[in-house]
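As the next step, I needed to go through one protein, both as residues and as discrete backbone shape codes, included below for the reader:
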Amino acid sequence: MIDGLLLVLFVVAVGIGWWLGRRYQHQLQQPGVADEHYYRGLNYLLNHQTDAALDLFIDSLEVNNHNLETHLALGNAFRRKGEVDKAIHIHQNLLNRPGLTHQQLAQAQLELAHDFVKAGLLDRAEQLLLEGAGFSLNKQAWGTLLLDIYQRDKDWQKALHIGQRYQLQSIPNLAPRLSHYACELAQEALDQEDFAKAQEFLAQANELNSKNTRCAMIQATMAIQQENFELGGQFLRQLVQQDPSLIPYVLPALSQCYAVTSQHQDWHDWLQTCMTKNPSTSVMLALAEILRQQSDADAMAYVTKELDQRPSVRGFNYLIDLHMHKASDQTRQSLQSLKGLTLALEQSKPSFQCKQCGYASNSMQWQCPTCHQWDTTKPVYGLRGE
């Protein structure tokens, strides 16, 4: 059977025959050439000799305003199919043909740059885009592809520069990405304890996307590093207000802020509020630890009640620990065996998962390493999670 690509080539062959048929005067000078090319091309296709058919069609089909889109569509079909070398061949052939306008050349250059990116030739794609950007009216398409290249290279400074140069922040789905690039630079500055530089990048990130929860997280981390735990706690609570699903992620740092500032009652009240509005296993266990300071019995009763409403493997493991402290030696041994099984079940499941592609890990990833989307990784909720 002729697959999808061969069908595309077949359609192109029919188009070639139609076009060559219109060149009546030329046919009179060279009788039989059009038919010869047409039927030879069909023969190559039917015998699955796509390379030979491709070369024949390119040579016989003169590039002009009427069939430029045919060449581009054929190249894109090859690229989608993974045959990038053929796509490059087609698009390079377009650039070598005389008579194209600046806009047509720019269109072919953009497609060739996509080919290079697909092939992993990022340097060649970058060079092509930077050299030809002045000829294109569609600046955002060129800028977006450059953005993808710099993101792959993790060159956040160049990415921000391109975003500003092509005004990509005006595109709704690109502004959040640019905000994360600024956060990456802020985190690098923070790692070097350059707090002033980190603040500059955070201001830029917040301007690009005021809803970026990562800004508050880096602000909190910076405040804690400077031992300003009161300010750190404020930023962490701000983060939770923006995205309550991240409560388990910020809980350890926020617990530290409350403990250092001796705001024990405020910590308890905040946990109670979270448990009412946004319940999770981590919040439940934090409250259980407060009760445990008074008595194990109070903690047992509370965890048992919560597990009846929202069962979780982590909560069950915690409850086993509480019972083991009061159990006899024989009972403790049985509970230990049981915990070994439930603990293995808990550890077999990741703590975080990308909502876009499903990639899972035990650490927070602001950019998913699989689908490369930003801010799609969240804590896992449910029986084996929160």
